[in-house]
Amino acid sequence: MKQLTLILLSGLMFMGINSLKAGVVTVSGRQLFVNDSLYTIRGICYHPVPKGSDKRSFGNLTEDLVLMKEAGINTIRVYSPITEEAVLNEINAAGLKLIISFGYNQGGSNDILSGTFINYIKTFKNHDAILFWELGNEYNYHPEWFGGDIQNWYNALNNAADLIHKSDPSHPVATAHGELPNSLALSMCPNIDVWGLNVYRWDNPEDIFPEWAAVSSKPMYLSEAGADSYMSAKMNGYDQGSNEKAQADATKNILNDIFRHPNICSGVALFAFTDEWWKAGNNNAQDPGGWAPNSSGVPYDGTPNEEFWGILDIERNKKMVFEVVKEKFKELR
Q: Which domains does the chain have, with CATH numbers?
């Protein structure tokens, strides 16, 4: 019997993680469950681009996963699919889950417009790293991408979610919406199971939770929230320039607000893991500035300095905010 058990285990290892049956992720009421256990997202947005580049690379993945585990992170949100199975396997082996996002028009590669996104889902739907699928990222701010009519996006979104449900009954479908969705978005997208909301309301997003509860009975999480570590001017008690304390203070208040509402909110994907030097200027230098839609609520200066949002700098040195995240996420484990 012992020899048979070893043979079976060896066979499973040979088959690989992707061929094993994935865990089942479900929603019940406002909450998210993995294999019938309540799941709270202690997440991070992750788009690792090396210094001097504008392309995502997983060259630092092993180091990054160690740091994520130290910070108490259990979920990684990526902005485009991870096509390297070895990367998915390493994330799974570290015990973290993935929110895999699909763009609308990515040149015919795993995107919604071409329909190729469903091929990715069929390939990786049994991978145990997957938490759920997510369609789009605050596209409601960009009707110009859809012939000037945002209803074109909502139709595409709802149809894509329906197609996923037919192909993969084991994972929910989400979207990342900019702020609170209006009645048009909600009525046109009944196939969305989980609503992600990108919310920047200074250091106090607390009102979003009763607002959500008033318009929907579905699960929600904050698909983006956080603060940058650069002050464009001296204001609100913080000096101009690089300012890790401003970021740490704001993030602490934001996280405290989020996790006071466990019956409504399923967690957060904090923005972001590392500073992103490719966003505002010279890819070999960290530049202040950058632009993002609807960003006047960024603490504490109303300015989204796009290259300063990491809880780590680009060299993986911890900022003050890292310890804030670590302390809060430790409370939730």
A: 33-332 (3.20.20.80)
